[in-house]
Fold this sequence. Notes:
Blueprint: E1 3-5, H1 10-18, E2 25-26, H2 41-60, E3 65-75, E4 78-80, H3 86-96, E5 100-111, E6 114-126, H4 131-139, E7 160-164, H5 167-170, H6 175-184
Helix pairs in contact: 3-4
Amino acid sequence: MDIILASASPRRRALLTMLGLKNFLVIPAEGEEEADGALSPEALVRALSRTKAEKVSACCGTEALIIAADTVVCLDGAVMGKPADENAARAMLSALSGRTHAVYTGVTVLRGGCARTEHEKTLVRFRRLTEREILAYIATGEPMDKAGAYGAQGIGALFVVGIEGDFFNIMGLPLCRLSQMLEKMGVSLI
């Protein structure tokens, strides 16, 4: 059985490899996701992950097992995706400074027309950041391809005071939830 990761994220690829999955294919869904601002963060990430899985399934056949995910950061009810530019990254990091925010990841596992879609929520608390720290972090380039403009698995870890929930969710793939979903689809990781 082919396993396909419907994501270009190197972090998700590394997490699947860490779980011992080998020889999986990486086939990102074509096109940009359409975010419906009327949806709750939970419903949004579930819908986006489901759309990614269905797009990849349409081009790869129904026998492959497809894993798709989408992650957003949410502060005070406002969804933060990836920053469009350095100014957007600065605004996001300034807003997160000294505050607790939620990270939501929607995960879809699809195989043979059968799909399971779920989501995970993790709370992340940032310490207060100085303007110098924000600008220096942006200069590293790390924030530019990450929801909420930070990577907890990289230099952004220096800002995280604490988390409540699945750490791997912050990286874009809640591994405990994914393993349970795969188990329900007949795929055991251990």
